[in-house]
Design goal:
Length: 236
């Protein structure tokens, strides 16, 4: 199980009804997930997608299983998809053309290397709203009558102000582009969307290493790590 790296963990504590309103969803989910401040690979997650002209909030499993896969064993390694290879890698090419989604998050964790140690940071929207992480989804049918819905989070180069934490970051889709990203009739939503978040969008601060343990969960995981009196807890 991956414990850190490029969007290997994130927080998703908002109620499904709040996400339905925030993302202008027409079809609420059949399943309601409990709040989590430590979403990990292969966990069930919320994703916003568009099918038959309607925007839906669904529960998918985090870790993409391509439709042509023989089994689901590699899903934990497919939690991220690099924006630079979406159109060339067989695992992502078809999903990028027809099955894009948004993965809502309170914020996500990145691990900054400090010598031989790694310090986790929490990155979240400066305006307090949910982040819309770009994602891809697939529907895998291991046998007749079975359907497994899975997703991956698209990553890109980190903006300069975040690059010292980690050189990669989840691709964030601005609200004005949600419709274009989700529309399955648009095979390529445009390279202008595959760029780092606009500077000034995110706040970041160091948090407890406890987030590295998948059994740890609770709002204390996103709390700023205590700093020395002359140090501020935030990055920006």
């Amino acid at each position: 199980m991956q414990t850190c790296g490029v969007c290997g963990r994130y927080a998703s504590s908002r109620d499904a009804r709040d996400l339905v309103d925030a993302f202008e969803v027409e079809e609420p989910p059949d399943e309601v997930l409990p709040p989590s401040w430590n979403v990990a690979p292969t966990d069930p997650v919320y994703a916003v997608l568009e099918r038959s002209g309607r925007r839906a909030l669904r529960v998918l499993r985090w870790g993409l299983v391509p439709s042509w896969s023989k089994d689901a064993r590699g899903a934990a390694r497919m939690i991220n998809a690099r924006s630079e290879t979406l159109t060339s890698k067989p695992a992502f090419r078809a999903a990028y053309a027809r099955r894009r989604c948004l993965v809502p998050a309170d914020g996500y964790y990145e691990w900054q290397r400090e010598g031989s140690a790694k310090q986790p940071w929490f990155l979240t929207s400066r305006d307090g709203g949910p982040l819309a992480m770009a994602g891809l989804y697939e529907v895998w049918s291991p046998s007749e009558g079975e359907r497994l819905w899975t997703c991956t989070v698209v990553t890109t180069d980190a903006a300069d102000e975040l690059g010292h934490i980690h050189d990669r970051t989840p691709l964030l889709v601005p609200r004005a582009s949600w419709g274009r990203w989700l529309d399955p009739a648009v095979e390529d939503p445009g390279s202008d969307l595959l760029v780092p978040a606009t500077p000034g969008v995110l706040d970041a601060w160091p948090v407890s290493p406890a987030v590295g343990n998948v059994r740890s969960n609770g709002p204390e995981l996103v709390a700023p790590l205590r700093s020395a009196p002359d140090e501020g807890p935030t990055l920006f």
